[in-house]
Amino acid sequence: MTAAEQETTGLGNYFIANYPPFSAWKPNFLPDALAAVNRPPVPGTPLGLYLHIPFCRKRCKFCYFRVYTDKNARDVETYTDALVKEVELCSRLPIVGGRKLDYVYFGGGTPSYLSANQLRDLMQRLQAILPWDAAREVTFECEPGTLQQHKLQTLRELGVTRLSLGVENFKPEILQYNGRAHLEEEIHRAYGWARELGFSQINIDLIAGMVGEDWDNWKDCVRKTLTLAPDSVTIYQMELPYNTTFSKELQMVGEEAKPDATKVADWPTKREWVKYAFDQFCANGYEISSAYTVVKSTGNKRFVYRDALWHGADMFGTGVASFGHLNGVHVQNVDTWEAYIEKLAMGELPLGRALPVNDKQKLIREMILQLKTGHLERDYFQSKFGKDITREFEAGYKKLESEGWLRMKPNGVELTPAGLMQIDRHLPTFFEPEHASKRYT
Ligand code: SF4
Predict the structure, then answer these.
(1) Which residues are near ligand 1 (CB < 6 Å)?
(2) 0.70 surpassed by pTM
(3) Which CATH superfamily hosts domain 3-309?
């Protein structure tokens, strides 16, 4: 690939969420997953619960998640019954080992697609099985147009501490063209209710580089977000993974071709937009917490779910196609509605594929994920893995240092600001050779 091609937003993933890559996870490792969940936990390991709610009002054109836009109330009931059943099966596994949940995350899809009554029913049933009264954080992802005041009130009563609002952009034309279902006024209304109700953390998600984006509008998005003053802001750079509407349009030829899908800004522009946003937020009382996130310096800065994942915690990933990590084994549930519902109807864990992670891979995984914070502490890895990362990964660090992305320090490493803006593209430097060129799906 030429340097110029590398800088255009082509097809494929940029964001690296895990290691080893998902394409290495296979059904033939399921016996390892079953053995792992039937062992007691490693002492001191926190336990979390992720719940996938796979419904959305419309499919965003850049979305590659397992979501459904055609399900009715009866389907929702079928699904939530299956989800409760799955959590019940998980709660009886030896891996729980008497632990209480440290964190809970409702993701999607659109968890806020469910009505207040559906949410109350679901959450009360879940809490009767695996209570989250001791959890340090309960996150709930919301699409602004699906929120009403009483729904937010219900979430507050049921113990949600962190609301994540999928704003992505404020401009009506951009929202509409990219397939978002919400309107700008719904963002302001939902945010106002959430603040009045006193949620302890409100995050706003933005995407740099939606189709139709330009400098003036991006500056406007940053300004409007600053006016709302959320506790944290997460900014993703638009990518074009396979299986999205945009990427399919991009691959069309002849009369069918829709060249608009190619109008995603190039990577240098998107990095400039993120840098601009970070600079603005930092000038207004925020600090950088990772390559994607700024947090208010004076507020509750923690993000338990992210930090738990990046430090090797256990997590049940429940719901169709969900990802989890249990006793050193990566697991993913079956990825079709039918298979998921059927497995639970038979009283089986709905596991679809897995990968046991060896000690070297655990070290690589934590190191690359924590590198997304911009710095690594050698002592942490020395005490957890008995390895000196500055020796173990010396060649990779030196390469990134020579290219200007990283600096080696007496007690670890830190990224340069430019390195932080594009860290995902450098992480494969540290992959084992057999995983270095894998597609990230
Ligand atoms: S709201 Fe989120 S999960 Fe739903 S289609 Fe859009 S990007 Fe995908």
Answers:
(1) 56, 59-60, 63, 65, 67, 108-110, 143, 166
(2) yes
(3) tm_1862 like domain (3.80.30.20)
